[in-house]
């Protein structure tokens, strides 16, 4: 899941010099979008903007097109468009309003569990060649901070990662899980895995026109 | 426009699957029905493909289970416990990496194998990372935490440049195409052209990317926070903007007396009352003008004194179809009917007489469902707990809140009457914590020890009976059942007040407190209003703007914005179940512009009844109601969460209502 945080106040305030139009996306409704803070910022600069639209799912181009149409006059009069949404929303608006200066009011972060649907403790980097069969269902790419595929780096202390002591060592978790199901010999037998980064290029998702 | 199929996995290559199967003697398959794709077919082809590919070896498969949204930890956990797989040693999972990892964790001790590879999701780019929004569009966001779009004309260099360069092109592009993947445009060339078109320059100075900006701990913290929040009180639900601040501090005031009232004969669950008056009759305030008919029904009373003008059909605000109503013209005298008399010698009145009185006074549930109270309080099963519902979880509404703040003593007296009738041992008043004033007042009451006030975390729809019973008593109302089945009766606080008024003041249900709030109003507030007051009167008093254009630019819902019923006909009127009116500006995109379902799964995540609303729309569009029934539509409480969250703006509730009607007719035969 993508969540947003407002950019620095000074930076946002400088946007108002453009006499912009403002899009506020409350989008997927769980983005912790600080709507009230934005409202206060806008209220303080009310006379500097040409209009404002509160919308949802700005990332869906077909909706954004309709929104833009509805407020086309205000956008035309503006010196730019400020978008408070995740990075996807900003890019969609920028694409649809190619001639306009489109600015992002937020920085975007992601949460664990995305690209699945729910917020979870797991991540999937969609590497295209799943290693979970050799690792007891624990992903070495996301659970190991170094993304190592052939075992622990040796830097873990008391089961904690040397990069971030808050984090469990992914490979220790893998070892324990495999031991539990009596399959730890996999670790000895399997040849070293090498990640094939080319898959990112060769196995792209299907684009339908 | 171009759309991406974001299906997140595909079967592993044949050789790899064969190798996997060589090692195992028996395997149980769990497969996920995918997400973020055009929702066209229900059966996913992977399992069949697997069978085909296995040939003889397919006999090793001991069983198969299909899941919608395998990564939905709560629902999947439940379903996994239901599966009979205790003897299974090896599980094969067809899903993306998240699903596999989740199953492996849940079924620790079993060998969990993946039969799939994820499909790299970088979309229009060559870079590793990138998340799509709730869309099937091409744009991606890396969630880097320091957005560069402001200096790059809205084209993301992190995602769109194969090398993720932040300070300009690498120089390797040929004819505008990337050297890493000649199918892809050079992002920096696109950035240059976009900026040039706008008369802007390429960024001079660039902030380095701070990979440590979004720290792992912080990400984990927010993830945990989100998971906790979502599971708070119950699974699903939402946190819509409450907007209660506009009316929560406004005292209850009397709504101006209407010139005429429209009193519907059907203001309750069950059969409509039949009229006791004729056009031309003179009636007094509180006089019974409709007699209840049948076991589940309620009486109707005149809310003003005056002359009956006609008995005609009007559009019912809740049934939304023509329904008989008695139209009374106000004579302005407010002469009270002789039947309006407090009960004397209350101490010695029997339980039966109290029930008869509530029936006579036309008391029904005021939370919206309008179930006759005398029927509810005469349960066929033993009841040990009375739950008084003061949650009022709908945004904008604060009528119940004001009732609790202004009439706490009456509520307590009302509770005592119900306690006497039900002989319930425990009484819990459940109030959401955003109503601290009401909680304070109720806690301050000098009440007997068996009445407790419970403060609940605010979450929509906490006020739904089943959610409330689960949270307060940890009792699970069975599917298709009532709180009664677990020994609980739930009454709304306003109903309690009506009970108090019926017994202590002899007043039938001819008025109630409602909230009028929303946008474009010159007056908002909590009003004591006569049943039958036309909606027109409300618009006239409260709406600030061109009255002619009201229905064009605004919408009015009876109730709150979530569960409220859209009113098209302003000749309709306030009924007993009216909790308020919410007036909102019409949305920029109309419902008619709904799009195809993209299986984003949000409706499943917010459904507090743990249903799969997407299927109601999927089968509903094809009129395949029989199929829709398989997804337990009768359990739906119509809270509207799915409808609210739908990223394709599909009017899910309308499909649900149709499916329910089909189920109802089917049961009736």
Largest interface: A-B, 91 and 101 residues
| Anisotropy-based shape of chain A | elongated
Shape of chain B: globular
Give the C-alpha Rg of chain A. Answer: 23 Å
Give Rg of chain B in angstroms: 30 Å
Instruction: State which percent range the strand residues of chain A make up.
Output: 5-15%
CATH topology of the largest domain in chain A: the name is Rossmann fold
Q: In this structure, how is the largest beta sheet of chain A organized?
A: 4 strands, parallel
How is this fold's topology laid out?
The complex is a heterodimer of chains A (209) and B (669).
Chain A: E1 2-6, H1 9-15, E2 21-25, H2 35-44, E3 51-55, H3 61-70, H4 72-77, E4 81-84, H5 87-96, E5 102-104, E6 106-110, H6 140-143, H7 170-180, H8 185-189, H9 199-202, E7 207-208
Parallel strand pairs in A: 2-3, 2-4, 4-5
Antiparallel strand pairs in A: 1-6
Chain B: E1 3-4, E2 9-11, H1 14-23, E3 27-32, H2 46-54, E4 61-67, H3 73-82, E5 90-94, H4 97-106, E6 111-114, E7 116-118, H5 157-160, H6 187-197, H7 216-231, E8 252-254, E9 260-264, E10 274-275, E11 282-283, E12 288-291, E13 300-301, E14 306-315, E15 322-330, H8 351-360, H9 373-376, E16 385-390, H10 399-406, H11 408-422, E17 426-432, H12 436-443, E18 451-456, H13 465-473, E19 488-492, H14 493-505, E20 511-518, E21 525-530, H15 535-542, H16 550-553, E22 554-558, E23 565-567, E24 580-585, H17 602-606, H18 614-621, H19 625-629, H20 641-645, H21 652-668
Parallel strand pairs in B: 3-4, 3-5, 5-6, 8-21, 16-17, 16-19, 17-18, 20-24
Antiparallel strand pairs in B: 2-7, 9-15, 10-12, 11-14, 12-13, 14-15, 20-21, 22-23, 22-24
Provide keyphrases for this structure.
heterodimer, A: 209 residues, alpha/beta, Rossmann fold, 2 domains, two-stranded antiparallel sheet, 7 strands, B: 669 residues, 6-stranded mixed β-sheet, 4-stranded parallel β-sheet
């Amino acid at each position: 899941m993508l969540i947003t945080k407002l950019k620095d106040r000074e930076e946002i305030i400088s946007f108002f010099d453009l006499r912009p139009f403002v899009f506020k996306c409350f989008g997927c409704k769980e983005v912790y979008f600080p709507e009230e803070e934005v409202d206060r910022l806008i209220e303080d600069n009310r006379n500097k903007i040409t209009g404002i639209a509160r919308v949802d799912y700005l990332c869906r181009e077909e909706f954004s097109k309709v929104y833009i149409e509805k407020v086309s006059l205000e956008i035309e009069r503006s010196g730019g468009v400020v978008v408070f949404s995740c990075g996807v929303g900003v890019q969609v608006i920028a694409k649809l309003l190619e001639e306009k200066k489109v600015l992002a009011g937020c920085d975007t972060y992601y949460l664990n569990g995305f690209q699945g649907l729910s917020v979870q403790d797991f991540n999937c980097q969609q590497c295209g060649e799943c290693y979970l069969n050799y690792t007891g269902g624990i992903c070495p790419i996301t659970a190991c901070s170094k993304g190592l595929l052939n075992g622990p780096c040796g830097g873990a202390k008391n089961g904690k990662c040397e990069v971030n002591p808050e984090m469990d060592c992914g490979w220790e978790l893998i070892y324990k899980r495999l031991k539990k199901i009596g399959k730890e010999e996999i670790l000895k037998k399997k040849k070293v895995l090498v990640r094939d980064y080319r898959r990112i290029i060769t196995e792209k998702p299907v684009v339908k026109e | 426009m171009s759309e991406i199929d974001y299906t997140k996995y595909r079967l592993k290559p044949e050789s790899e699957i064969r190798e996997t199967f060589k090692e195992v003697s028996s395997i149980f398959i769990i497969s996920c029905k995918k997400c973020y794709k055009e929702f066209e077919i229900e059966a996913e082809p992977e399992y069949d493909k697997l069978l085909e590919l296995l040939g003889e070896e397919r006999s090793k498969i001991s069983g198969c289970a299909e899941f919608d949204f395998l990564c939905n930890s709560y629902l999947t956990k439940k379903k996994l416990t239901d599966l009979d797989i205790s003897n299974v040693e090896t599980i094969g999972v067809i899903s993306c990496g998240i699903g596999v990892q989740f199953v492996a964790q849940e079924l620790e001790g079993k060998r969990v194998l993946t039969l799939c590879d994820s499909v790299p999701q970088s979309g229009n780019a060559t870079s590793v990372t990138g998340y799509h929004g709730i869309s099937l569009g091409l744009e991606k966001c890396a969630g880097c935490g320091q957005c560069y779009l402001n200096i790059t004309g809205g084209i993301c260099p992190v995602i769109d440049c194969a090398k993720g360069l932040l300070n300009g092109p690498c120089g390797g592009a040929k004819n505008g195409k990337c050297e890493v993947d000649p199918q892809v445009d050079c992002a920096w060339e696109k950035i240059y052209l976009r900026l040039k078109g706008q008369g802007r320059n390429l960024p001079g100075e660039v902030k380095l990317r701070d990979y440590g900006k979004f720290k792992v701990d912080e990400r984990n913290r927010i993830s945990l926070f989100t998971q906790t929040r979502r599971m708070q009180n119950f699974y699903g639900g939402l946190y819509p903007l409450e907007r209660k601040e506009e009316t929560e501090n406004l005292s209850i005031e009397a709504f101006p007396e209407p010139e005429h009232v429209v009193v519907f004969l059907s203001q309750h669950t069950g059969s409509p009352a039949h009229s006791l008056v004729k056009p031309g009759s003179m009636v007094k305030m509180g006089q019974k003008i409709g007699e209840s008919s049948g076991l589940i029904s309620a009486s109707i009373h005149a809310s003003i004194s005056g002359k009956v003008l006609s008995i005609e059909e009007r559009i019912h605000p809740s049934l939304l179809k023509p329904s008989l109503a008695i139209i009374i013209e106000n004579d302005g005298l407010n002469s009270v009917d002789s039947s309006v008399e407090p009960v004397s010698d209350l101490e010695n009145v029997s339980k039966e007489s109290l029930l008869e009185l509530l029936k006579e006074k036309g008391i029904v549930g005021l939370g919206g469902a309008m179930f006759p109270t005398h029927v509810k309080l005469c349960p066929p099963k033993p009841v040990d707990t009375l739950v008084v519902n003061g949650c009022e979880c709908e945004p904008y509404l604060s009528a119940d809140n004001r009732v609790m703040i202004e009439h706490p003593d009456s509520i307590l007296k009302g509770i005592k009457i119900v306690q006497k009738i039900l002989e319930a041992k425990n009484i819990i008043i459940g109030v959401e914590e955003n109503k601290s004033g009401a909680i304070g007042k109720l806690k301050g009451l000098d009440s007997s020890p068996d009445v407790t006030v419970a403060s609940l975390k605010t979450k929509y729809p906490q006020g739904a009976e089943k959610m409330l019973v689960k949270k307060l008593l940890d009792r699970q109302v069975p599917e298709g059942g009532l709180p009664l089945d677990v020994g609980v009766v739930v009454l709304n606080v306003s109903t309690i007040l009506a009970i108090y008024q019926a017994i202590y003041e002899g007043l039938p249900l001819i008025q109630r407190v409602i909230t009028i709030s929303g946008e474009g109003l010159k007056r908002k507030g909590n009003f004591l209003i006569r049943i039958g007051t036309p909606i027109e009167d409300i618009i006239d008093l409260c709406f600030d703007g061109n009255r002619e254009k009201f229905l064009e630019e605004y919408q009015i819902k009876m109730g709150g914005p979530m569960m409220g019923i859209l009113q098209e006909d302003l000749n309709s009127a306030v009924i007993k179940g009216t909790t308020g009116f919410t007036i909102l500006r019409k949305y920029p995109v109309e419902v008619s512009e709904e799009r195809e379902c993209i299986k984003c799964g949000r409706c499943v995540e917010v459904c507090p009844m743990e249903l799969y609303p997407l299927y109601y729309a999927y089968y509903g569009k094809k009129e395949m109601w029989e199929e829709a029934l398989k997804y337990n539509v009768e359990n739906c409480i119509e809270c509207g969460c799915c409808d609210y969250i739908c990223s394709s703006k599909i009017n899910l509730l309308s499909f649900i209502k149709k499916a329910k009607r089909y189920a109802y007719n089917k049961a009736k035969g």
